[in-house]
Structure formats: C-alpha cells, structure tokens
Amino acid sequence: MARLDTNRSGEMEVFVRVVERGGFSAAAKDFNMTPSAVSKLVGRLEDRLSARLFNRSTRRLLVTVEGQRYYDRSVRILADMREAEEEAANIVQPKGKLRVSVNMPVGLHRILPLVPEFQTLYPNVDLDITVSDKVVDLYEERADIAIRSGPLQSSGLIARKLGECRMVIAAAPGYLERHGVPQSIEDLNEHVLIGYNFPRAISEWPFDVNGEIKTVMPGGKTCVGDAESARMVALAGGGIVRLAAFHIREDVNAGALKVLVDQFNTGIGVEIHAVYIGQGGNMPARVRAFLDFCIERVDLT
User: Fold this and answer.
1) Is 246 a residue whose pLDDT tops 90?
2) Number of Cβ atoms within 10 Å of the Cβ of 243
3) Helix (H, G, I), strand (E, B), or coil: what is residue 236?
4) Among residues of the chain, what percentage have pLDDT more than 70?
5) Where are the alpha helices (DSSP H) in 8-59?
6) Concatenated DSSP letters of 82-106
C-alpha cells in the first residue's frame, strides 16, 4: 500500500510564504521556525518534485519558472482547502481578493459602474479589476475571472455565458458632413474604417445583403489598440467604427454618433463570457458571488 503523505499542504504553505516574503528568514518568523528548518523543508520538497524551485545566491532568492508554476497552483489549492473547510463548517462567506480582467467596453460601461453595489453586497471581497482588451493568461496574471467577447479559444478554463451584445456601425455627424453618408456596403470602402492594431478572432465587418453574408475589412489608415479608443476617434470625427450597441448607446441618444447601414445588420450578437479556472461545481465563494452578480445585473443589450 502506498504511504499516505499528510504533510503536503504544510509544505505548500511554507513554500508559498517563502515566495511571498522573499526569503527563508522572513518566512521562518511567520511559522516560528528556524531559517535552516525552512531551507531544509524546501530542499525536501524540491527532491520530491525532482525540480529546482529557487535559484539561490548569497544575496538573492529567485523563483524559477517551475517554482512560479508550483506557487500559482499552490495558492489556489490552499485557497480551495480553506474554502472546503469553511463550507463543511457552514461558515463560508465570499471574502478575500478577487482579481478580474475585463475588456474595455464591458469594463468601463457595465462592470465599473456596478462596483459600489457589489461592495455593498459583499463587503469582505476586495476587488482588483484590470480593464484591457488584451487577452490575459489567467495562470500567469493570477486572475480569478476574465470577461471576454467573441469566440472562445480551446482551453482548460470553465466558461459561463453572460449574454450577447448587438454590433452596430456608426460615425459622428461631423465626419458624415465631410465625407457623405454611406448608403450601401460598397460605399464603406470609400470611407475611413477604424480598425485595430492587434489580432482579433473576427477582423472583418459582416453584413447581410439579401440573405448573403458579405464582409468589409477595415483598412490600415486608422488603427487603435482597444474599443474605447475606437469610440473616441469616432466621436472626434476620425472615421466609421463598429462597436457594441450598449457601448455607444448614450452617444447615439445624444446625437454624437449616428448608426449607419443598419438595414444590413446580420443581427448576430457577439457572445460575452466569463472564464475562470477550476470545475464549475467547486469554486471559491467570492468567484461564484461575482459571476452570479454579473449575470443578474450586467445588461449587454
């Protein structure tokens, strides 16, 4: 029968503390151990894993690539263990730091305005929100949740659909006065179409022309790095933009932007998902609370 090792969680906890405190001595104080004892524990851990977790020198202790990966997993495993113990004792409450990465339109116009409401509901959850159109690696960025638009790439992450958003074509009245109002899909080729300077799952603009899907590719005259920048260029009269309807609804209602060629809109919405690490039935309470809150309160129409 295989020997049962009951001390792995203790090894993980000491190792995590060494990484976070930056050395054996500081971690040893936290556990009332000697620096030598902590060093030997890490050494035994490295022997068992057959991997070097730290590069040691007389001045610095540097985490290796393998050590960083083990640290990331250890942090989540220890958090899950604490969550399991609290749940078994019926005292589980959403708490702790929640790291969220969300794209520009959803983040700026839907998530951030709801932060005070979420904080009131869950005062023990500390939000750490990054708003960017960059697709982050949850493991590398140590994020709990990422909110992404468009088709999802195959990965080991769990996805939960938050909704769909309708895409529209729009431009500022000042731009249309100077360049004319496009009446057909072909007319768009004569205009400045604001594109992006990073790879996207769908680069072309799709249209429904008499039941046939036709596409237009934005040119390279004006490219930006995120959807909010595209909105700002369009508002300034710099060209025609394709954005989520909710993203520019206030601009359209105020007359700052005008929706164009909407008779050719495909009506196919862009799906918005929240993705996270782990199994759907076993997630930290803070993650579940945020996902449930978004599904209930975030309007993407």
Assistant:
1) yes
2) 21
3) coil
4) 92
5) 8-21, 24-30, 35-49
6) HHHHHHHTT-----EEEEEEE-HHH
| pLDDT tens string 21-30 | 888 998 899 8
Q: Determine contact, residues 208/162, Cβ cutoff 8 Å.
A: no
CA-CA distance, 24 to 18, in Å (whole number)?
6
**What angle, 0 to 180 degrees and rounded to 10, lies between the N-to-C axes of helices 8-21 and 35-49?**
120
pTM: 0.68
When pLDDT is cut at 50, 70 and 90, the band that residue 61 belongs to is confident
Q: How confident is the model at residue 3 (pLDDT cuts 50, 70, 90)?
A: very low
Phi, psi (rounded to 5 degrees) for 77:
-65, -45
Nearest to 159 by CA among 171, 150, 170, 167: 150
In this structure, the dihedral spanned by the alpha carbons of residues 10, 289, 166 and 232, taken in order and rounded to 10 degrees, is: -70
pLDDT, residue 283, reads 75
Distance between CA 178 and CA 157 in Å, rounded? 47
Q: How many helices (H) and strands (E) would you count in the chain?
A: 12, 14
Residue 246 to residues 98, 167, 261, 266, 272, Cα–Cα distance (Å) = 26, 9, 18, 17, 13
H or E stretch covering 210: none
Strand partners, 214: 207
- Tell me which H or E stretch contains 280: none
Distance between CA atoms of residues 206 and 104, nearest Å:
22
How many Cα atoms sit within 13 Å of 226 on the Cβ side?
15
Instruction: Yes or no: say if 300 and 110 are a contact pair by the CB < 8 Å rule.
Output: yes
C-alpha dihedral (235, 238, 242, 248), degrees to nearest 10: 0
CB 98, CB 126: distance < 8 Å: yes
Q: How do residues 92-143 score in pLDDT, each as one tens digit?
A: 678 889 999 999 999 999 999 999 999 999 999 999 999 988 877 787 778 8
